[in-house]
From TrEMBL:
Family: Belongs to the aldo/keto reductase family.
Pfam families, sorted: Aldo_ket_red (PF00248)
Methyltransferase is among the record's keywords: no
Organism expressing this protein natively: Dictyocaulus viviparus (Bovine lungworm)
Name assigned to this protein: Glyoxal reductase domain protein
Length: 244
């Protein structure tokens, strides 16, 4: 019997994942993925807007057999670009992601952002387009091509709108959450609605400001800092709060 999206995430998604944001060089990404797999990573996060799905598809085809692994041994997350919100664009983009990643299923597909490219954050059509997009995710989930579906960067009001209209419960809300930017109300809301809260952490590698992405699917402890604490990606978080 096929698992529901939420059960699939609970059973299949590793606790720690490797993000591929800003890595578009095939040579670099090949070395990074090879090293990550050799170190035990089995969860990889990408997105349409990252521009590296096709590169990852080629790399997985080459690197997985090297370590005696198959497609089913790794967990892949991707995300619908804000430029692909709406029924037809979303449907076309999911098919393209499957093609780019050279797989007949994606473990978890998210709506990357509650807003739509080239539309004001206060445009009421944002809600309409993201609802249409989620309905496409539901369509592909029913076909088995998306094993679990969810959202990213959704605030409480966005989740309330979605829960009031969706047929398939979102399995995940992936958001920024770290000691410098903590959204405790959002965390508690997701927990109360049985939505897996996945936090995105940017780890500072050196003083030059270069970052590596690390995804943690479980919050172990929360130690809120004063409200004036510096939030490295606060401008991004702030803009999300105003999306209607």
């Amino acid at each position: 019997m096929a698992l529901s999206g939420r059960d699939y995430v609970r059973e299949k998604m590793p606790t720690i994942g490797f993000g591929t944001y800003q890595i578009r060089s095939e040579r670099v990404l090949n070395d990074v993925i090879d090293t990550a797999i050799s170190c035990g990573y089995r969860f990889f996060d990408t997105a349409q807007i990252y521009g590296n799905e096709a590169i990852l598809g080629r790399i997985f085809k080459k690197v997985l057999p090297k370590y005696g692994l198959e497609r089913s041994d790794i967990f892949i997350t991707s995300k619908i670009s804000p430029a692909n919100q709406g029924t037809e664009l979303a449907r076309k983009s999911v098919r393209k992601s499957l093609e780019n990643l050279q797989t007949d299923y994606i473990d978890l597909m998210l709506i990357h952002w509650p807003g739509t490219s080239r539309r004001s954050v206060v445009d009421p059509r944002n809600a309409e387009y993201r609802q249409q997009t989620y309905e496409i995710l539901e369509e592909f989930h029913r076909s088995g091509e998306l094993r679990a579906i969810g959202v990213s960067n959704y605030e409480i009001r966005h989740l309330e709108q979605l829960l009031a209209r969706c047929c398939i419960h979102p399995a995940v809300n992936q958001v920024e959450f770290h000691p410098h930017f903590h959204q405790v109300d959002l965390l508690e809301f997701c927990q109360s609605r049985n939505i897996h809260f996945q936090d995105l952490l940017d780890l500072l590698l050196d003083m030059s400001g270069k970052f590596a992405n690390l995804l943690c699917s479980t919050i172990v402890a929360i130690n809120p800092l004063p409200q004036h604490s510096y939030a490295p990606r606060g401008s991004v978080a702030l803009s999300r709060m105003y999306v209607t």
